[in-house]
Amino acid sequence: MRSSETYNWRLTIGVATTLLILVYLSYILRLWARSRSAARLWWDDYWMGFVLLLCTAMSVGDYVGLLFGSGQHQDELDAYTVRHFKINLYVYMCTWSAGVFGVKVGILLFYWRIFSTTSRAFRVSCFVVSGFCFVQFIINIFVFIFQCSPIGQFWGETANGICINQVSFYLASAIINVFGDLFVLSLPIPVIWRLHAAKSRRVALLFVFLLGALVCVASGFRILSVTLIEEADFTYSNLAGGIWSTVEVHTGYITANLPTIRSLLRMKFGKNQTAASSSYQRGNSKAQQPNNAIGTGGTRGRWKGASAAATDLGSDTVALTTVEWADPASSGASGISDSGEPLPINGINVRTVVDQVEEQWAPADDRESKTMSYQVPRF
């Protein structure tokens, strides 16, 4: 085997294996983060488990391709090897189409779990983008399956069949797929930017969500590699396209899990902040009362425990600040409504979602444990 062919073997095995390990690790961390938050698994978690199988199938396809001449010049291979290379490539292309669609669906399901209650406009946009991705998938999978007539013509089973211009279709499919990625990535930007949180925190959230842009980079290199495919030397010229296809799907899968994994970092590195909050709350007994009105900058707020909601949605859920309008005419001079609730200043009542945290401690010489309760705002 030539040195260039040996390099192609090592490159393919290295990329496919490394990415597959990272894919499995990201899903394990995702499930761990969900379990640590005491949240029930939702549709996006189960769906990403299915997409994990597609990622595995793509890496296996890379390994099988090496056994049948991937990265070697076609004129140096026998007809049996070339035929089985193309059969493997045929299955791989269909798996790629399902993989890129599966990653997008997983991200959209995650968006729906987190942001679906924010606005009707977001829900409509989510349905529109989902429809675009679904139509793209149907077209891709249909053309990939029936690109040759009869189908066996793709791997040379018959001599009288016909095929479409395959390279042109691969290029068009890759370009349209980039637009789908951009549509999916742009969906949460307006919602996150309108969060009632510090600008630095909003920027940090956007950074995590927009890490998916790495997929667009991989897609760009894949488009470039598709333009270099030569039908006369398919086994050699298609190597780069296959590698970047694997990078594209696997990178998309990993970045789709990152927003959920982020909660593990908050649990790990947020302990000091939690301890500081605990000390502050112990020194301010009024702040421990959940129904006290807390005025800040001319705005009157109210702490609400959200442990049950956090259990259902998970620690990766972005808690949105709700703003409620009240009729000043319905209030008395005391600023208390008929229901006994404190009325907002200037007709705006800002409610902040917080987590109720309890810690138990017991001195060595005291058998009776004591419970300390404090509240930590969540964003």
TrEMBL record:
Ranges for region Disordered: 278-302
Key words of the record: Membrane, Transmembrane, Transmembrane helix
InterPro entries documented for this protein: Rhodopsin_dom_fungi, SAT4-like
Transmembrane segments: 12-33, 45-69, 89-112, 124-147, 167-191, 203-224
Protein name: Rhodopsin domain-containing protein
Mode of membrane association: Multi-pass membrane protein
Record flagged with keyword Transmembrane helix: yes
Keyword flag Membrane: yes
Main location, first listed in the record: membrane
Localization per Swiss-Prot or TrEMBL: Membrane
Family the entry assigns: Belongs to the SAT4 family.
PANTHER family documented for this protein: INTEGRAL MEMBRANE PROTEIN-RELATED, PTH11-LIKE INTEGRAL MEMBRANE PROTEIN (AFU_ORTHOLOGUE AFUA_5G11245)
Originating species: Saccharata proteae CBS 121410
Chain intervals with Polar residues compositional bias: 278-294
Coiled-coil region(s): none
A GO cellular component entry from the record: membrane
Domain Rhodopsin residues, every copy: 29-266
